[in-house]
From TrEMBL:
Species assigned in the record: Aneurinibacillus migulanus
Coiled coil spans: none
Official protein name in the record: Histidine kinase/HSP90-like ATPase domain-containing protein
All residue ranges annotated as the Histidine kinase/HSP90-like ATPase domain in the record: 20-108
InterPro entries the UniProt entry points to: HATPase_C_sf, HATPase_dom
Superkingdom in the source lineage: Bacteria
């Protein structure tokens, strides 16, 4: 999927945008697996990628894997001693815009193309 996108948008594999797209997808998929293993095993995860001249938008959806994303983002950054809890903050810091749908089943991540 990313190989096709990279080709379509003429992205180099080593460029920061390509890495950010990979990291955004990875972090959301890991959250689905870690926090909703039954949903991850029994449901399909859909990834939609669309783009304009200025943005690339990822939509990652897994029904039945919702969570209270507002609570997670309001708890603050984890301490350096904690081994988990940085994924959503990483996505926030590398993206232009990041949010979930009301139920926390669908993540929308926007990256600036330039």
């Amino acid at each position: 999927m990313l190989r096709d996108l990279r080709s379509e948008l003429s992205l180099q594999e080593e460029c920061l945008l390509h890495y950010s797209l990979q990291l955004g997808i990875w972090e959301i998929l890991i959250n689905i697996i870690d926090h909703s293993p039954k949903a991850a095993a029994n449901c399909h995860t859909h990834i939609t990628i669309r783009w304009t001249d200025s943005d690339i938008v990822l939509k990652i959806t897994n029904r039945d894997s919702g969570f209270d994303w507002r609570k997670c983002l309001m708890t603050g950054l984890p301490s350096p001693a904690q081994q988990r809890g940085r994924g959503l903050y990483i996505i926030q810091s590398i993206s232009k815009h990041f949010t979930f749908d009301e139920n926390g089943e669908s993540a929308n991540i926007t990256f600036a193309r330039k």
